[in-house]
Amino acid sequence: MDVLWMIPLLLLMIIPLLMCTSSTFVFYFKKFFYVAWMMVLALIAIPLCILKSGGRDIENMRIIRFMVRHVKYLLGLRFEVSGWEHLQTEGPYVVISNHQSSLDVLGLMEILPDRCTTIAKKELVYAGTVGLICWLGGIVFINRKKTSDAKSVMADAAKTMLDDQIRLWVFPEGTRNQNGDLLPFKKGAFHLAVQAQVPIIPVVFSSYSNFYLRKEKQFKSGVIRLKILPKIETKGMTSDDVSSLSDKSFDLMRAAFLDISDSITRSNGPVRH
Ligand SMILES: CCCCCC/C=C\CCCCCCCCCC(=O)SCCNC(=O)CCNC(=O)[C@H](O)C(C)(C)COP(=O)(O)OP(=O)(O)OC[C@H]1O[C@@H](n2cnc3c(N)ncnc32)[C@H](O)[C@@H]1OP(=O)(O)O
Ligand SMILES: CCCCCCCC/C=C\CCCCCCCC(=O)OC[C@@H](O)COP(=O)(O)O
């Protein structure tokens, strides 16, 4: 029994020591802590959401947003947001952003407008308590392997957006990407906006490469710039305009990405690859 008491004490001594001496340990510790803490937060949020709304409801995103807001401090991250005024648009719209890591959830919760939820891969629903909280928050799940299914789910979402005055956040790259650039955009977000005839608001996260390097196993403290760009109207557009709309959005977001990432890189010294 005495030995069992020693284990937490030893851990309390060893963890800070390792945190000071090994950046690889910091990397794994922060990653583990992030997932574990999000699971715990979701566990607390589940009954709160059920009590408030009785089940799956977009209003639950307010609770989720509130509960995730402090997590950035625990990981040593700070957000610098610009372009707030562009989110002050009435009614439904589609937000599109680049997607580097599951850490994007922190930035998303930093600026998430009211009555806004996201489109996510259906595998996320199986992620334990996080999956359940995503479902309760009204997240629209799509099967990326079955394009026809994904298209019909998104067509339904276009209708729901208008009927229920909902905003949807889509990651048009369709997967996580940390290659220092944007991946070509998939078309779903743009079909969605055109079908619902609602504006698109592009949001750009600066590169995480100045604090988070997966290959080098580094997860330092850092600043993430979030730039909200002016809305792009889709009124009067048809499916014929989707490709040019996607290209235009890509060009605007890529320019903003290189701009805000470059300025972080310059102020913190060169990025190691
Ligand atoms: C309290 C604490 C709790 C804490 C826990 C966490 C808390 C909260 C969680 C909240 C946050 C959650 C955040 C979750 C993030 C998850 C992010 C993701 O999962 S990203 C992955 C999923 N998302 C996407 O994939 C969206 C983007 N994908 C697409 O848009 C794709 O287009 C598609 C999946 C719809 C189809 O894929 P694919 O076939 O590969 O794509 P295309 O080349 O774009 O399309 C092929 C042709 O089909 C046409 N098309 C596409 N979409 C449509 C459509 N909706 N309607 C009509 N036609 C469509 C397209 O034009 C192409 O045809 P073409 O002739 O070539 O033009
Ligand atoms: C019991 C099951 C345990 C499952 C554990 C997984 C739990 C994840 C928990 C916490 C992290 C919190 C943030 C969750 C939301 C982020 C989701 C995300 O970023 O999904 C990746 C997806 O966009 C793209 O995936 P791919 O790169 O295409 O693949």
From TrEMBL:
The keyword Cell membrane does not apply. Its EC number is 2.3.1.51. GO terms for cellular component: endoplasmic reticulum; membrane. The chain crosses the membrane at residues 32-51, 124-142. It catalyses: 1-tetradecanoyl-sn-glycerol 3-phosphate + (9Z)-octadecenoyl-CoA = 1-tetradecanoyl-2-(9Z)-octadecenoyl-sn-glycero-3-phosphate + CoA; 1-(9Z-octadecenoyl)-sn-glycero-3-phosphate + (9Z,12Z)-octadecadienoyl-CoA = 1-(9Z)-octadecenoyl-2-(9Z,12Z)-octadecadienoyl-sn-glycero-3-phosphate + CoA; (11Z)-octadecenoyl-CoA + 1-(9Z-octadecenoyl)-sn-glycero-3-phosphate = 1-(9Z)-octadecenoyl-2-(11Z)-octadecenoyl-sn-glycero-3-phosphate + CoA; a 1-acyl-sn-glycero-3-phosphate + an acyl-CoA = a 1,2-diacyl-sn-glycero-3-phosphate + CoA. Pfam families: Acyltransferase (PF01553). GO terms for biological process: phosphatidic acid biosynthetic process. InterPro entries: AGP_acyltrans (IPR004552), Plipid/glycerol_acylTrfase (IPR002123). Signal peptide: none annotated. The keyword Lipid metabolism applies. GO terms for molecular function: 1-acylglycerol-3-phosphate O-acyltransferase activity. Keywords: Acyltransferase, Lipid biosynthesis, Lipid metabolism, Membrane, Phospholipid biosynthesis, Phospholipid metabolism, Transferase, Transmembrane, Transmembrane helix. Pathway: Phospholipid metabolism; CDP-diacylglycerol biosynthesis; CDP-diacylglycerol from sn-glycerol 3-phosphate: step 2/3. The HXXXXD motif is essential for acyltransferase activity and may constitute the binding site for the phosphate moiety of the glycerol-3-phosphate. Belongs to the 1-acyl-sn-glycerol-3-phosphate acyltransferase family. Converts 1-acyl-sn-glycerol-3-phosphate (lysophosphatidic acid or LPA) into 1,2-diacyl-sn-glycerol-3-phosphate (phosphatidic acid or PA) by incorporating an acyl moiety at the sn-2 position of the glycerol backbone. This is 1-acyl-sn-glycerol-3-phosphate acyltransferase. It comes from Oreochromis aureus.
